[in-house]
Structure formats: C-alpha cells, structure tokens
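In response to reviewer comment 3 from the previous cycle, which asked for concrete evidence that the modeling workflow produces usable outputs, we include below a single protein chain processed end to end. The sequence was submitted unchanged, and the resulting structure tokens are shown without manual editing.
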Amino acid sequence: MATIDNIGYNDLFAKVGGASGASATAAASTGATIQDTQTRFLTLLMAQMQNQDPLNPLDNAQITTQMAQLSTVTGIEKLNQTMAQLLAGYSDAQAMQAAAMVGRNVMIAGNNLPMADGQSVGGAALSAPADQVQITIKDANGKVVQIENLGARDAGNLYFTWDGTDADGNVLANGNYTFSINATANGQAVSAEPMQIGMVSAVIRGTNGGFQLDLGSFGQVSFNDVLQIF
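The workflow returned the following structure tokens.
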C-alpha cells in the first residue's frame, strides 16, 4: 500500500465520497506463574534429596533431566509472555494508524464513479506502461455517456477527473455512475484494473480484531484492501 502527498483534490474527494494496563496485568500474572512453578519444583527437589535412600541416592543424570525439563517449561512460558506483549503492542499501533485514516481519501478496487456538482474522480492500476488509456463512463442504466482518452500513462496507479458532461457537452445529473478502462501498448492490450476513490468517514473494529474503513456510499472495506492513501 503506497502513500502519496496531498494532491489538491481533497475538496473534490470530500464531495463524492506501548502495552495497555490489561497487558501489564497479564504479564505480571504470567511472571508470577513462572516463579510459582520454579518454587514448587525446587521445593519438591529439596524434599526428594532430603528423604532419599542413602543406599540408593538420586541419579545425577535424573536430576539434570528434571532441571532441563523445568528450563524448557519456563522458556516456553516466557516466550508466550513476550508474544502476548508484542501482539498487544501491534494491536494498539494498528488502532492508532486506523484512527488516523478518518478524513483521508483512499483508493480501492472498484468501478464506481459517483458524481456531485459536476465533479467526479476515479482511478486505475496499470500492470505495464500504456501508450493509450481510455475510460468509458456509463450511467445507472448501463448507457455510455462519455468516453475519456487519457493518453499515455506509466505502469502503476493513476487517477482521473470527470466534469460530469456527456459526449455532447451536456451537464448530467448528480448520481452514481460506473466506468471501465481499456489500455493498450503498441496495439496490444495492457491489463488495467478500475479503482474507486472515497473518503474515510469512520473506522470500525471488526469481530476478528481487524479494522474496517467506512467509505460512505462505497460501504465498508478492510484496512488491508487500501491500495493508496491521499
């Protein structure tokens, strides 16, 4: 996902579209559990040594094995504790990053092209450079109302604006339109995917712990589906 500087289209876009307290408590609880395990083991080991049969003392190899087992258990518990702290920190960082998205414009896969007050903006992703890129705009009934030639474009993400007029120059009504994109290079087709641009109005935490971005008329999309941020 790429981030680009503000390109001056914010008004246009707006019209169309550390460990927490719980983590610290969990860590302290886990630390106490590890300490309790070690204390119980040493207590049992000392009792076992004090009450051993003098004619049949404990085998050194057996004691070493028990110590190694304790070390393994302790290491696993400490690893689990560290992982829990890392996950908690990641979740907090992701929440802050997601909250910062409110009011930003994002590009996601889709071919919706809402138009308001004679202004509309869309995007596309080209798999390779193209010497000719053409946008075909349709109304809600599927009728072609305008064809825009964007000329040559480099590979990657691009955006375009539409003034809301049809092929005869008539101003069309506000509403939802769609578009398709056709790109060629030396007469050969270039793979091109339409992209829609919307403004994030809210951030919603999902049931699985991830975040959904509310894009108004575009609905909710996963934070991971964002391809570009304006």
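The first strand starts at residue 2 and ends at 3. We consider this sufficient to address the reviewer's concern, and the full set will be provided in the supplementary archive.
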